[in-house]
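agent: user wants the structure for OCX32 protein from Todus mexicanus. delegating to structure tool.
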Amino acid sequence: EDAGSCLATVLYPKTKAPPAVTIKCTDTKDQKQIQEEDNRLYQQLRHQTKPIIANNIPDSYGNIEPALEPVWALAVAGSSYIMWQKSTENLGYFMAQVKSAKQWVSEQNY
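agent: tool returned. relaying tokens verbatim.
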């Protein structure tokens, strides 16, 4: 989903200090539209008749079932913090595959 474009600059100091990150983004959608799309995804996941259980997203050939694209997108977003924390000037991380995913069902309404 294209919500905008961003340019990030990451400077790695020679010390053990964390990198200095500067991010500049431009939205292609307004905030209300983004929130409406987020809510539609939430409602879709919340009202499924059975929880999502999936393995190997994407598969060995790079394919992602359309129904699992939101799972992949959430995994990429969640892994970005770990990648940022663990990357260095000489070492970068990229999430290649979600080995397994299982949706937890909650009776609470958020």
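agent: one observation worth passing along. Helices lie at 31-46, 69-86.
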